[in-house]
Amino acid sequence: KQWYQRRVAITAGIIDILAANGIEDPPRSQRVFWALCEGATATALLVAGGTDALGALQTVSIITGLPYTIILCFLCISLWRALAMEMGDIDPYGPDFKVSVIDPITTWKPELWLGFLKNLFITPFTLYKVMTALGQGVGNSISMAMTAFICWLLWIILLILQIEVEGSFALGWVFYLGFVTCITITRHKVRLQNGINGNPCEDFFCALILYPCTAVQLEEAVRPRGEGITTLMPAPADMQNYRDVVVENPAADKSNQEDENSV
Fold first, then answer.
1. Separation CA 172–CA 184 (nearest Å)
2. 110-120: average pLDDT
3. How far apart are the two ends of the chain, measured CA to CA in Å?
């Protein structure tokens, strides 16, 4: 009960500040109102649920908080990248995947939808095509695809086997992590070859949470003539001359700076 009382008090305080438009010391009457509302709601839930209500409420709180934890992880990465761009550590006009990880489920593009549905089942074959397109050799490509296929198949079989064999699902998720690792390695190779900013942790969590979307992204990234690669931000027209001088010919830019200093 003390746990839930503290949780209600904290929640009431947060809602009170939000309702006061961010004021850290809201009016006392408003504070009392939200505390009474939260207390009444908690009391009703505890009375209606009986002796098991508290455990059920704790479970529900954890389950509902899990998706927000994942969202916060992505928001932290986004904030870090925005700050890195602001400080000049990341080129905002550098290369990036043309298809975002969430595009297959958030855009109105039938070809991406079909790619998503297809890669629910044939991601190992997609990895083979991507590895071949990267020039990794047929042997390495087949090894990666076969490893991914075996891990994916055992994951499905062991999850189904849970109906008859208690605890087999745990081993199944171990094989799923092996499958995710294969996708992570492939995405890491695609990023390195195209100079795309990122890190292996991002690759891993993209594959862990949305492996069909990640497979679609990789399949699009290895299209011929660089059709699957774009820039983080579209470069304005007046930036083109700057990129020609600074990126393509840094020696010329240095000489221009020396001329300006001498003047």
1. 18
2. 94
3. 75
Q: Which two tokens stand for residue 248?
A: 């393509």
User: Residue 179 and residue 154: Cα distance in Å, rounded?
Assistant: 10
Q: At what angle do helices 110-133 and 168-194 cross, to 10 degrees?
A: 80
CA pseudo-torsion sign 39, 40, 41, 43: positive
Residue pair 221/190 in contact (Cβ under 8 Å)? The answer is yes
Q: Using an 8 Å Cβ cutoff, are 98 and 111 in contact? A: no
Contacts within 8 Å (CB) and 24+ apart, 170-173? none
Which amino acid is it at 240?
A: Q
Task: Evaluate the CA torsion angle 24, 29, 31, 33 in order and state its sign.
Answer: negative
Q: What is the arithmetic mean of pLDDT over 147-168?
A: 94
Tokens for 253, please give them. 């830019």
Q: Residue 21 — pLDDT band, cuts 50, 70, 90? A: confident
- Spatial distance between the Cα atoms of 177 and 168, rounded to a whole number of angstroms: 15
**Residues facing residue 96 across a β-bridge:** 230
Question: Among residues 99, 101, 81, which one has the least CA distance to residue 91?
Answer: 81
Residues 6+ apart with CB under 8 A from 144: 127, 128, 131, 136, 182, 185, 186
What is the reported pLDDT for 254?
46
Q: What is the pLDDT of residues 230-255, one digit of tens each?
A: 877 776 665 555 444 444 444 544 45
CA 109 to chain centre: 20
Length of the chain (residues): 263
Beta strands 95-97 and 229-231, pairing class: antiparallel
Amino acid identity, residue 66? L
